[in-house]
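Listing S7. Sequence submitted for prediction.
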Amino acid sequence: MRALLDTCTFIWLALDPDRISEAAASTINDTSIELVLSQVSAMEIAMKHHSGKLPLPDAPQIWIPSRRDYFKLVDLPITEDVIYRSGQLPDAHKDPFDRLLAAHAIETGSVLLSPDRPLSDLGASRIW
């Protein structure tokens, strides 16, 4: 099984782990599950940090890889198939980052670790 961390889940895992649900924490701690972080999340974090909406202890280009390595998350590159799928999903959720993450989970057969219920309406399998 593969689990894709939502952007907020990754941030909380690194900075505020008490915000992660018991079910998501159990999935994260299960060593038989491959944990992945989408490059979509790296883009979202970098953009929010640049705009001043997301303070981080270090620059995103240092902080993201260091936290990804620390938590043993596999870097999941975005593909054109994911981009195209994001445009074919239902209109249940308008946020482009969330649509890309849902599409990434669907395209890679991953469960999405996210508190964002509308992602399920996009067709992504979700644990929270």
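Caption to Listing S7: primary sequence and predicted structure tokens for the chain studied. The domain at 2-127 is CATH 3.40.50.1010 (Rossmann fold). The radius of gyration is 14 Å.
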